[in-house]
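Regression test attached.
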Amino acid sequence: MNPATGYAAIAVVSLASALIGFYGLRVSRTTGDFYVASRTVRPWWNASAIGGEYLSAASFLGVAGLVLLSGSTGFWFPIGYTAGYLMLLLFVAAPLRRSGAYTIPDFTAARLESRWVRRVTSTLVILVGWFYIVPQLQGAALTVRITTGLPPWAGSLAVAVIVAVVVVAGGMRSITFVQAFQFWLKLTALAVPVVALLIVVAGGVPGLEARAVLAPELAFPVEAGPHGLDAYRTVSLMVALLFGTLGLPHVLVRFYTNPDGAAARRTTVIVLALLSAFYVFPTVFGLLGRAFAPELAERGQADALVLLLPGLLVPGPWGELLTALVIGGAFAAFLSTSSGLVVSLAGVVSQDLLGGSVRGFRIAAVLSTLVPLAVALVTESAGLAGSVGLVFAFTASTLCPVLLLGIWWRGLTARGAIAGMVTGAMLSGGAILASAAGATAAAPGWLRPLVEQPAAWTVPLAVAVIVLVSLADRRRMPRSADAFLARLHVPERLR
Amino acid sequence: MPPGSSPSPVEGNQPPPARVRVTAAGTPRPAAPRAALRLDRAPEAPTSDIRGVYVRSLIRSQLRLGLVFAGGFCLATALFVAAIVLVPGLDAQFVAGVPVSWLLLAFGLYPLAITVGVLYARAAARNEARFRQLAEDDA
């Protein structure tokens, strides 16, 4: 691949993101602008921004790589990422908007009137955010290594610097514009190459005959298809993805920019449609890869399928052009998800530690970029979709149960919430660390899936602990619980 | 449509919901005092009055709605996957070189998720409209 293509695509996307960020700077003046875009963002803008922020390296590169590597198991990731928004719509969107809080710690602290709940929630939000940024930076490292030949750390560093600069300069308002732009960029950057590749494959453009093409029966063997599904792993993954979405810090922060609860619901429905449209394309990429590029199906290499396939199937300048497009889209994915996460982490860190000023927000933004950068530089990616899936499992076992019970159950108490979050964090975090350290290789066969895909048992256990401890602690139920729940569920005009 | 304007298009298309007479336990009160309606101004206001009854029933019906739709989605997904696995021959039939079973699993569940989402948003807005009518009648 021509390195000039890689440099050009990366430069254009970075420059465009920075320009839109600075354009937004002229609009954002007050602290309120900085934090929540003053709650005036329209549903379509907001939905595009949510989609732009949500579609990360795991979606853009990881889904296709996983379909190539392990077949129809890979389909469940995009289905879960999308259906997570359905759960968000059903249980969280409107009430959370009406709560008037800005971050998850704001919400839990107001709901349970407890400083300790706030501290525990903030710690978890920061952990989740950091470990969600790491795969983005690793995706950037992979992209830069493959497309330009530079050492991998250059990619991680470039994304971290751009994100820090854009967030420090513009805050949330400009981020909303950047994110919305990046959703449509990512969609185009996958849709155009997919259509072109399908035309090439169907029309038999010269040069394609030279490639060894797998027979359909070999490219899509029955055991890698729906028949080969592992029921426990699939269900556990779906629990993680469906409920993990509810607790992601950068997802929730977007709902505060809706004008009211009904608009939050409309926005979420639009997001569902946008995500569904987007995920068609990485899925098709994965299917094309199985038939036309089976040699890429190795660990560490499969995630680059989206970047390499256009160049493999379409020789010449058209192939270079398509490659530039997917590189640009991939970079947009790393930039948008990381900057969304950094904005929400900076909000949490600056409100808890630095007094909530614009200056504090900026310092916090830089801090929130440096830590994941350090982690990304010393670790190696073990499949982008898989590592993001583990972050979902952790979120689903910690923040999600407290959020759901806080919205729907008046009996929740501060002690119950803390006990449940700590239990969920220990269990799911322990399982994730154990399988990352390779401890599962020695485990008996029945234990392995339980450790490698823990959400199916850690989420119910966390919920059970919250409910039992809250019931035992019933005298300490916050007195404001009824009024708070009324505020979450009563339409705004009637307050 | 501008998001700030009301009512929402979804609510606007609905026929007015049927009037439901709700009676609180004991004697029905003539009208709740206006101050009790302003929950954000008086967060400690007692919720045992008729307004509180309405609010609790709104929360219950919204929760029930969410659970029904979530359960429906999970059940439909499970049935869909079971059908893909159990219907014979889907693995051996190819469309554009890809087995039908793969295509169904890859693309079949998104329309379901969108449909469930749209239906839920309508039903939730209807619940709120019903509550609004009760609360405004009462005031």
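Expected vs. actual: identical. Chain A touches chain B through 56 residues (CB under 8 Å).
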